[in-house]
Structure prediction request, 629 residues.
Amino acid sequence: MEHLLIAPVVLPALVAPFIIMVLRHHLDLQRIFSLASVVLLAAVSLTLAAQAADGTVKVYELGDWSAPFGIVLVLDRLSAMMIVLTSLLALPVLLYAIGSGWDTRGANFHALFQFQLMGIMGAFLTGDAFNLFVFFEVLLIASYGLMIHSGSTRRFQAGVQYVVFNLLGSTLFLFALGTLYSVTGTLNMADLAVKVAQIPAEDTALLRVGAVMLLLVFAIKASLLPLHFWLPSAYANAPMPVAALFAIMTKVGAYSILRIYTLVFGPEVEATAGLTEAWLLPAALLTLGAGAVGVLGSKKLGRLAAFGAIASMGTLLIAISLFTQTAAAAALYYLVHSTLAAALLFLVADLVMERQGQWIQPQRPMPQTGLISALFFAAAIALAGMPPLSGFLGKLLVLDATRNANLAPWIWGVILLGSLITILGMARAGSLLFWKGHGLPADEQDPSKDLPADSLPAKPAQLPFVACFGLLGGLIALTVFAGPATRYAEATAAQLYAPSAYIDTVLGRTAE
Amino acid sequence: MELLVASAVGILTAAGIYLILRRRSFPVILGLSLLTYAVNVFLFATGRLVTGAPPILNKYQEVAYTDPLPQALVLTAIVISFGMTAVVVMIALGAYLSSRDDGTAMPTETDGAGEDA
Prediction:
């Protein structure tokens, strides 16, 4: 069963071409296979997570080449948590895409979806920096296709910007990897950690350049403030179910920061000490501020959700940028929460946009207003971090973890003020969308008014609501089982900040 | 040779960045291609510049050798950047054909009032 570790990468990689080549003309079969793949992926991820839960680090050597020479996949608590989150996010998103008919509006939705999952899973599992680049490219190239799915003019224009920005990021990634390789002679993350620690502090100018470039790349993916410009128009113009899946993509950047800057350039590495902390925290604070103000200022629902995602990335990166164990544990809990909450908001935004367009303005009450407004309400309080949902607990954990930091007053101020502005923005959008419309005069041309209720032209699909309530159920579960979840996050953070077990296992140095 | 390679990387990068900052999509794509050439040459140089040496270690005597790994990395990078350039050309073409405008900036939107109402 050791080969199970590579299954999250291989399974979608096999299903996607199968869908393209064999099932091209059978939408129903495509849906079945795509769903089956995601369900299987969830089962595999959960099995792997159960194996990693006791703190063992499992290594899969591709082609049986041992670590510094071959590429390895590594499973530890953090990777396991991320792949479980990915597959549990993918399931409702896929259900929504099927239920709302988004997958019929263009070609190859399901194949691209599987390729995207393959890239994300690979990025979370790999133990090799260059392999990380390759999986970044896999997930990006699939995301380009998904982003312009069922294209329109604006979607294409936003797509060009998104692709160009990310290609620049990829080039920078290669420059960074080249620099690191020229200094250390290796790209295996565990081996990098060993080599970086051995380099005397006066010879580390190039290494520091490489570390900063790498941080820039991950900051682009994580939409840290000066590098976030690609996100609002890309997410707002992408199909909303796709944007919901993209909620995990910014987390890939956050994961990479957490992984590389605890394992390779950890806090105790002299060469890069103080390099990341000094820049990351102010930038994260600004990200949260910009996201919150963006939520308040959005005129379109897609942009509202996109800025909500940016604000949650800000909070997450604040917790990560402290680089302490307790802050990392808080960050991990918040990461799970913010992924689910942002995805829920995107899906609810799509429910609204399908019924009354993308602008946030008073409109006639739409079908199922009650249900949709309740879902919007839940998504808004989750993303803004209000009780009773897990966002509140997540923010509380972050605030608690930053209590002793140098900039604690700033952090507390920005997080609390940012939450307030986010709540205001969500409240404004919600009342405009769902309440103001009741005062508008009814439209005489609306045919459904005169017809009896059971002869409505198209019965609205149930599956989108199932998907939304699934995500909401995830958030509620995260709240109810906050105790076990926090304990898992704490154990994960402890494993991250004691990287010697990871390094020893990957390099095969265990004394057996 | 070091000077030549270094200045080649530098000039390619500078030209690439300049072109990426243009407003139309064709120069932007050209700039991206130049930048990927720059990064390929750079990656190639990260294994140290050696001429006429085989990529083989000899454990019996000290011989000059060239590092094969960066060459493998460059191959991967070339393949990926080739595919990416094709994708960006197709998306830019889609944007151009549907809007009859090859600017890379998002056009300013009219306010929602009145539209979609």
